[in-house]
Amino acid sequence: MKRTMIPVGPYHPILEEPEYYQLYVEGEKVVDADIRISYNHRGIEKLSEGLTFDQVPFLVARICGICCACHPFAYVNAMDDLLGIDPPERAKYVRTIFGELERIHSHLLWAGLAGHFIGYNTVFMWVWRYREPILDICEFTSGNRNHYDVYKVGGVRFDIPEEQFPAIRAKLDECEAGTKMLYEAVLDDPIIHLRLKGIGVLSKEDAIAYSTHGPTARGSGLPIDVRADEPYASYDVVDWNVIVHDEGDVMAKTLVRLEETLESIKIVRQCLDNMRPGPIELEIGDVPPGEGIGHAEAPRGETFHYVRSGGDNHPVRHKVRAPSYVNVPSFKANVIGAELADAMLITAANDPCYSCTERVAAVDWKTGETVAKGRGLIELCQEKTKRLKRALKR
Amino acid sequence: MQRDELVEKITKDLDGKLESIDRPSGKRAYLFVHPDHSLEVNRYLYELGGRLATATGVDSRDYIEVLYHYCFDSMNIVVTVKTRAFKPEVEIDSVAQVFPGAEWIEREMHDLLGVKFKNHPRLERLILSDDWEEGVYPYRRDYKK
After folding, report:
1. Rounded Cα gap, residues B36 and A218, in angstroms
2. pTM of the shown model
3. Cα A18 versus chain centre, distance
4. Residue of A nearest to B58 (CA)
5. Nearest to A227 by CA among A208, A242, A215
């Protein structure tokens, strides 16, 4: 059969992480895949070496528009490790709250996009509406809907005043009601089951071999979560559960994300209940020579930072590893054998920041001629849902 | 198994292959390994259940230091293998031949620091563009714009 190469990417116009996939298809089946990254390499690690330890959180917060809490979170964890310090209780609660608010709005953003990919545009609109209260909380506590810049070596930059607690609780209730309704709707909908179950299965063995983490790994039955495995900030004093589903398909990853959103709301509520007035930062003197490792659970998995100090006021080496770096390659393990109409969905399930599809062009393998482009693959994906709907009605 | 038992087991099983062990805190361990034993030690840790979080390359005067960070999630410990690729060859055995999780990060170090990984399944450019000048490594200390 004729083999066609479909380039997907490389430029990602809306969200972070530009990627470039080459899908090799025979008819409707994907037979091979190749991934290229680094179309947006900004040299953050090198830039970080030119900044002081206090300036680095502002830089790493700007690695990603969505994960602007988890990168500085992992960095301050690495600095705590390097300095051997334990920040004050209240600072740890504030750190936890922002980490969880980020998880909620990131998971809901993904759920909305997933809805759009499978042709449920109402889901897209409604879910992003449920996400809005969380962004409101971020705005009135930090001044920004994103880029809260709350993290600081030894503590946090600002406190959340008690007067704001009732408003935060009200917004959480609003978000929770919407998320619960969505969760039940997903479980109830036969089309979603047909569309997501058994699609793009990532086996447990592959999840281990590719060192995956986050909802990608937890959807494949690996019970790993940095918040539970190395409890940083206040995760050891609040009551919450690690969500694991064994199936490894897109449905499992969806359920992990939705259930985690509800867990996160639970965590934020407990933090608000338990917080007591107190100092929010430690006095940090000179940073001695040494090295520190810090990781934090980002919405997409583990964010890993390694910092080495030479005894100066700036890092001599700062390594950053974002979760998609380990999750994206696993796409190669679960896309082969899939239908082309599902390929977009599988990438979306592995890496929620996927809108490269806007720039897709299908090129004939031999002649190099463009046979489909633009929104073609999204449409293909949405058509399959319509087809299933029609078949179900019959 | 608890993390102290894990470090004890690693020390015993890898007897003669470790130069030294540093344990700055309970949840961190650094293993200093000669490059000749690097592959063996990495394979051992992976098979023991370590999850390769990532690897870091650090440029020093005479060598590039290569650090593989393994998380043992259920025991709350990060074990780091510290090895060196000596200049001017800067060669070291690839870990990606053991499992695919190491593939990208080794390609990245090859691009940015010029570490040559022996027996890597596919040591092509990952970070730098295809028209980047050969032999110029932006994360080396002597790199000038």
Report:
1. 36
2. 0.91
3. 15
4. A317
5. A242
pLDDT of res. A335? 83
From the options 3.30.460.80, 3.40.50.1950, 3.30.390.50, 3.40.50.1980, give the CATH code of B3-88: 3.30.460.80
CA distance B52 to B67: 11
Q: Where exactly are the structural domains of chain B? A: 3-88
* Closest residue in chain B to residue A36, using alpha carbons only: B126
**Cβ within 8 Å, pair B71-A37:** no
Pair of tokens at residue B33: 């390994």
Res A351: pLDDT? 54
Size of interface A-B (CB pairs under 8 A): 76
Asked if residues A311 and A288 have their Cβ atoms less than 8 Å apart, the reply is: yes
CA A170 to mean position of chain CA atoms: 25
For residues A101 and A138, the answer to whether their CB atoms sit within 8 Å is yes
| SS3 per residue for A124-141 | HHHHHHHHHHHHHHHHHH
Residue whose tokens read 């879910």: A127
Residue A317 CA, distance from chain mean position: 25
Q: How many CB atoms lie within 10 A of CB A24?
A: 16
* Inter-chain CB proximity B104 and A293 less than 8 Å: no
Q: DSSP 3-state assignment of A213?
A: coil
**Regions in chain A scoring below 70 on pLDDT:** 9-18, 350-377, 394
Q: Class of the A3-39+326-393 domain?
A: alpha beta
User: Which CATH number among 3.40.50.720, 1.10.645.10, 3.30.360.10, 1.10.238.10 corresponds to the domain A44-324?
Assistant: 1.10.645.10
Q: State the nearest Cα–Cα gap between A293 and chain B, in angstroms.
A: 8
Contact by Cβ (8 Å): A276, A90 = yes
- Transcribe A146-186 into DSSP letters: S----EETTEESS---GGGHHHHHHHHHHHHHHHHHHHHHH
Q: Per the CB < 8 Å rule, is B25 touching A81?
A: yes
Kindly report the average pLDDT of chain B as a whole number.
Answer: 93
Q: Angle, nearest 10°, between helix axes A250-274 and A165-188?
A: 160
